[in-house]
Each structure stands twice: as structure tokens, then as C-alpha cells.
Amino acid sequence: MNIFRLLADFSHLTSIFILIQKIKSSSSCSGLSFKSQVLYLVVFLTRYLDLFWSFTHSFYNTTFKILFIISSAYIIYLMLHEYKPTHDPNVDTFKIQYLLGISALLAVLFPSEYSVSEVLWTFSIWLEAVAILPQLFMLQRTGEADTITTHYLFALGLYRALYIPNWIYRYFAEGYFHLIPVVAGIVQTVLYSDFFYIYYTKIMKGKKFSLPV
Known about the structure:
- This is ER lumen protein-retaining receptor.
- This protein is mostly helical and 213 residues long.
- It has helices at 3-26, 34-47, 59-82, 96-109, 116-130, 133-142, 147-174, 179-191, 193-201.
- The protein has one domain.
- Helix content is 71%, strand content 0%.
- The protein is globular.
């Protein structure tokens, strides 16, 4: 495993821990998109279904897959039960059925091979690329976010951005190249580009995060 993959995976895990800590410490899920969290759980469940029928995974991969599924489900539990009154569905209004539909269509039209596991894997790759849109849409509507939320989004975006040098490394070191995750990863990184810029120019300089509404 190369250093870029390692850093990406731990950045992803860090983003989840930051989010859980933000919810628990503030006793609130205000400012967080429930729809984005549901999409991420769908991503993990469809991508890691092989946990239930394959026992050839490394300890590292198995551990991370289980952590992602459990932590994502736990976040949804917190938002649905313990802190549900703090979430405003009138702000979290992005139409996720379009994201699900487009991801499903791309998975059916362009899988690496036509098998249930490969179609679901391809679906999860495309869905992950756009799963953050409901959260970014919420930020755009409210125009601001607390510092912990922005740290969560930065760590999540950094995770995907690190996969780009990971793919470059694998291409030259291993001769491996898979078009679907590369294109989806670039799309996801582009979606974060404005956020990265504002994060650098404001949060990194001690200013309040804000967007034009």
C-alpha cells in the first residue's frame, strides 16, 4: 500500500470522527445534511457488500470497511433520534433522488463487468462523487458554518483529493488504471474546489467561514 492511499483512508476516518465529535460536543446536528449522511451510508453498504461473502480481505481493509459502515450508521442514528430536533429539514432540501438515479444509470450503462457486485460497486463510486452535494447546498443556503463542520468537510475532501496521486502512483508503480474511479474522483474534487479555496483564505487565517448566499 502506498502512502497516498494510507493518508487518504485516515483522512476519511478522521472526517467521520470529527463529525461525531461535533455532534456529541454541541448536542446538535445543526448545519449538517441528513441527506448527505444517508447517501454515504448507501455508498458504504453497496461498496462493501463483499464483506458478507468474501473472507480474503486483509485485516486493514476489513477493519476500515466495518468502521465506515458502523460509524456512518451511528451518525444517522444520532441525527434521527438523539438530536433530531436540532436538524432543520426546511434547509436540507436537495433532491437526492436525482443523484441516486444518475448514479444508478451510470452503473448500469458503464460497469467494468455485468455482475451484481460490479454494478453495485460502480454505483457506489458515482454516488460517492456527488454525495456531498446536499451538504454543500446547505452551506450555500445558510451562507456560513461552524469551524468544526468546515474541518469535517476539509478532511472529507482531502481524502478524495489524495486518491488522485494514489492513482498516479499505482499507474507508474503497478501498471494499474481504472477509468471509473479516476473520473468520479476528479468530479468529486472539483465539487470541493470552491470550498477548499474559502477554507484556505478564511479558516486557515482565523476568519469565519462564510459563503455568498
